Amino acid sequence: MNKPEHHLFICGSARASGELKGVCCNKESINLLSYAxxxxxxxxxxxxxxxxxxxxxxxxxxxxIIDYPAGHFYEKATEELIDEILDSxxxxxxxxxxxxxxx
Length: 103
Ligand code: FES
Known about the structure:
Number of helices: 3
Strand content: 15-25%
Order of helices and strands: EHHEEEH
Largest sheet: 4 strands, mixed
Bound molecules: FE2/S2 (inorganic) cluster
InterPro entries: Thioredoxin-like_sf
CATH topology: Glutaredoxin
Structural class: alpha+beta
Protein name: (2Fe-2S) ferredoxin domain-containing protein
Number of domains: 1
Strand order of the largest sheet: 2-1-3-4
Radius of gyration: 13 Å
């Protein structure tokens, strides 16, 4: 298996205990995971993977998505944002919507 060019990690709010507890999961981030996986399949995007991750310690900005390895962090994720992120990936660009700037 080749390394993905874009690995989207969607916060699932998991704590070290395995418990799902936090802002992102309360805002339906688990459904976003399914949505993103379906979109990647429907669009037949090679080199794009989607996984759930534990709490990213940015809870007030959740649901949070990381585009790895580029290191782009997105806040307040929705299905519409996922569409925009995937559109940008298809266009070879960086999605600017809800991008958390380095400050
Ligand atoms: S629960 Fe998602 S960043 Fe903390």
